[in-house]
Every structure is written in structure tokens, then in C-alpha cells.
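ugh ok fine here u go
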Amino acid sequence: MSKFKDAIKAAKGGDVKKTSNKKSTSKEVKKSSNVEIKKSINVESEKEKMVGINIKVPESHRKHWRIEATKAGSTITSDIIEALTEKYGTP
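structure:
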């Protein structure tokens, strides 16, 4: 297992066991976060074409941010959208 996967597993508190009281998997967290992103976009924006934004950051920063976002039950994408919306607002 990679160091990154180990770090995420440790952040989640160990192995995710498949029981009735199971922890959220990364896919469930991502799906939940994507739903929140769509809810935060107003009705006019939902009709707009979605585009990508690419930025170059040090790999260590990205790994750290992804781990922290996972711990918080979020995604880097939703956190970036939140930060940019807070700073610049919406059109």
C-alpha cells in the first residue's frame, strides 16, 4: 500500500470495516461532497457548461490538502470552490 493510502487510512482511524455501522468510504464522501457543490451553485449556473481549472502546486501540498479534506469529509474541489466564492463571489 502506498504512503498516501496509509496516510488516508490513518486519518480515517484505521481499516474501514463492512458492518452496519460502517464509516463512509472515499467514494461516498466524494459523492456527498459533489451533491453539496451542486446545491451551492445557483439555478442559472446549473445550466452553464462546467469547465476545469488547472493549477500547478507542489505535490506535497496537494497530498496534505487531500488528506485534510478527506478527514473533514470534503474534497479539494469543493474547498477550492468555497474559497474562491467567498473571496470573489459569484457572477
